Amino acid sequence: MNFNIVHKIKSKLQLLPTFILMLLMLSLFSTGCNEKPRYQVGNIIEFGSYYQDDLSRKTPIKWRILDIKDGKAFLISELLLDAQPYNKERKEITWENSSIRHWLNNEFINEAFNSQEKSRISLTLLDNCDNPEYGTNAGNDTKDKVFLLSLDDVYKYLPNENQRAIKVTKYAIKQGAWVCDSDNCRKDVFYGNGSWWLRSPGYDPRDAAYVISYGIIYDNGISVDYNGYAVRPALYINLPARLRAGRFLKMLV
Hints:
Distance between the termini: 14 Å
């Protein structure tokens, strides 16, 4: 415990209720000086569980931390977890009314997370921007707990192709996901990869943008009812209260 730090911040906390001060002090005791931070951009954490390589039971889902802000961690799955069409019917559609949005925020969230985990998932306001290349209408902004990255998101948070070239699980393949194998893979390094949906529209409002197995972004899109592409969910979770308190302390020091 660094008592110099405590003395330094106590004067800044004079107006806070005593019980809040006690919680903040406790956060200093509970984090060792040499403890490596678990919640850090680029780290992989486990949260929830889903059928993956073991088709008979669920195993923990691994997530990559894309960003940390406002007491929340922005996560994206490290594997392609399932296969779904963007929309079950080929027609002009936006993310707001797509069947994949309904599936993510109903079937998937209930299958992958228990009640305690679901309580940590933040309801997020999504900025659904039009296709930046073709101007295709993306529809209204939405509030979602689980979602897909947009074109803007993927360029911002996954700027390199090797960050976007991702393996597909055995379960997703069983569900119909296309996989890069020895017959159709141009390089061994991409073996086992799949292609995954983005929530942005493609060139045509009946198409949706996607990332192919090599990590290349296709903003022109493919038909929304294509059932061979995989799902790479994203979400925000609230950080544990101890970490939020610790971050607040650092702002005061």
